[in-house]
C-alpha cells in the first residue's frame, strides 16, 4: 500500500505542477504523452529496473530490507530519443515485443516524437490537443495509405 501511495504522489506531482508549481490546462497533454509512451511500449508509467543504471536518477523505494529501483517511462524514452548514435534501434527495444516486426519504426518514431512534445517540461511549449489529433490523423493516413510523409509534416510548430 505504501508503495502505491509513493507512486501516486510521484506521478501526480509530475502531472499537476508546471515549472511554477501551479496547475495548468496542459496537464492532460502531458498525461496523453505518457499514455502514448505506454501504448508504444506496453509498460506502465513507472517501471521497475532490473539492473541498476547510473545514467539516470531514479525513484528509489525501500521495501523491507531491499531497495527497488524505478524509472519513469518518460526517462526511458528520453534516453533513447535523445541519443545521437541510433535512436531507432533504441526505440525498437522499447516497442511492445508482442508486436514482433509488424510495425513501421518510422511511425513509432513519429509517435514518440509527438509524445515527447506533449511531455515538454514547459507547459506553454506543449501542443494543443487539437494539434495532437491532427498529427495522429496524418500519421494514421500515412500508415493506411502506405505512402511516406516527411517528419516535418507532423511538426506542431
TrEMBL record:
SUPFAM superfamilies xref list: Protein kinase-like (PK-like) (SSF56112)
This protein's UniProt keywords: Cell membrane, Disulfide bond, Kinase, Membrane, Receptor, Signal, Transferase, Transmembrane, Transmembrane helix
Gene3D superfamilies: Transferase(Phosphotransferase) domain 1
Membrane-spanning residues: none
GO biological process: innate immune response
Topology within the bilayer: Single-pass membrane protein
Molecular-function GO term, any one: transmembrane receptor protein kinase activity
Subcellular location as annotated: Cell membrane
One Gene Ontology CC term in the entry: plasma membrane
Entry keyword annotation includes RNA-binding: no
Main location: membrane
Name of the molecule in the record: Receptor-like protein kinase
Classification of source organism: Eukaryota, Viridiplantae, Streptophyta, Embryophyta, Tracheophyta
